[in-house]
Amino acid sequence: MVFTAAFQSSATVKGVQHVILHLTTILVFQLVGETLTRSLGWVVPGPVLGMALLLLFFVSAPRIAKAIQPTAQGLLSHLSLLFVPAGVGIVGHLDRMGSDGLGIFLALLISTVLSIAVGALVFSGIARWMGAEE
After folding, report:
1. 31 Cβ contact partners less than 8 Å away, ≥ 6 residues apart
2. Residue 33: other Cβ atoms inside 10 A
3. What pLDDT, on a 0 to 100 scale, did the predictor assign at position 7?
4. Where are the domains of the chain?
C-alpha cells in the first residue's frame, strides 16, 4: 500500500481501474455470446455473437462506447501478441508439416485470397452505398 501511494497518483490508479472495467465489459459480452451459442446450439462463434451484442450496446449507449474506445484501441494496437501462441503451436507440430504441409499451405493460400476478395467487395459495396466517389 505504501508503494502504491508513493509511486502512483490517484489519477493513475483510477485510470487502471477504468481499463480493468473496460476490459471486463468486453470480456463479459464475449462470455454472453459464448454462453448463448453453446446453450442454443447455434453455429455462430460465441465471440462473434458477443461482438455483435457489444456493438448493439454501444449504439444504444454511445457515451459508454466513447469511454471504452481508448482501452479498445490500446488492445487492438497489441493484437499481434495474440499470434505468438499460434506460432508456438506451429513449431510444436512441425512434424505434421511434412505430411500435411501442402494441404495446410493451400488452405492458407485460398482462405487468404478469399478473405482479401470478400473484404474488397464489401468495402466497394459500402463505398458505393455511402455515395463515395471513385
Report:
1. 50
2. 22
3. 45
4. 1-77, 83-134
